[in-house]
Amino acid sequence: LRYNLTITLEEAYSGIKQQVKYSTTTSCGTCKGTGSKSGKKSTCGTCNGSGRVRAQQGFFVIERTCQTCNGSGESVADPCNTCHGQGRVHQQKTINVNIPAGVEDGMRIRVAGEGEAGVRGAKPGDLYVFITVKQNNIFVREGDNLHCKVPLKVTTAMIGGSIEVPTMDGGKAKVVIPEGTQSHTQFRL
Asked: From CA 96, how far away is CA 19, in angstroms rounded?
């Protein structure tokens, strides 16, 4: 399964534990995923257990998946009342997903075993959480670096001084501005 998750730049910076709610199929609790009330299965009468059906039209032989058993070769004689013989049911699921610090836009996080349940008791698939990071009003991200444009007074640029700039954790950092600083000069913290 795929789940699209949008987070803020602050959340991407610090990492978060995000609660994810999604619709999926899970193994039927009544029949334990077998699709049968009694747990017994029988050989499919349409394909005789092969899972394939052949049809001949002149010189051509067409082989396709058996529609009665969906290719499993087995049929359920006494279908479960809850899942109607499918072995799985639809439900809403809520899990917590750890989003690591430094996650980037477009990354995906694999959550093993939290995807759709397999047919008739097979293992469940995986859930993939695709991350989208919202743009920030103050910072622009380029790879692992954050850029912030800060206006400077002309006098500070000419004779030097210090200014406070915002940091990602919500604090402020002091930056020393040397005399003669030109417009668009970058300082690294």
From this structure: 4
Whether residue 41 contacts residue 47, with contact meaning beta carbons closer than 8 Å, is answered with no
Looking at the predicted structure, is the pLDDT value of residue 80 above 90? no
CB 187 within 8 A of CB 174: no
* pLDDT band, very low/low/confident/very high, at 59 (cuts 50, 70, 90): confident
The phi, psi pair for 71, rounded to 5°, reads 85, 0
The answer to whether residues 114 and 2 touch, using CB atoms and an 8 Å cutoff, is no
DSSP for 101-151 reads TT--TT-EEEETT-SPPPGGGPPP--EEEEEEEPP-SSEEEETTEEEE---
Average pLDDT, the chain: 88
Residue 157 DSSP SS3:
helix
CA distances from 76 to 26, 86, 87, 117 (A): 19, 9, 10, 18
Tokens of 36: 């049968």
Give the SS3 label for residue 41. coil
Instruction: Check if the beta carbon of residue 87 is closer than 8 Å to that of residue 119.
Output: yes
**DSSP-assigned letter for residue 72:** S
Lowest mean pLDDT among 58-72, 95-109, 136-150: 58-72
Q: Is the pTM of this model over 0.70?
A: yes
DSSP string covering 169-189, please? Answer: TS-EEEEEEPTTPPTT-----
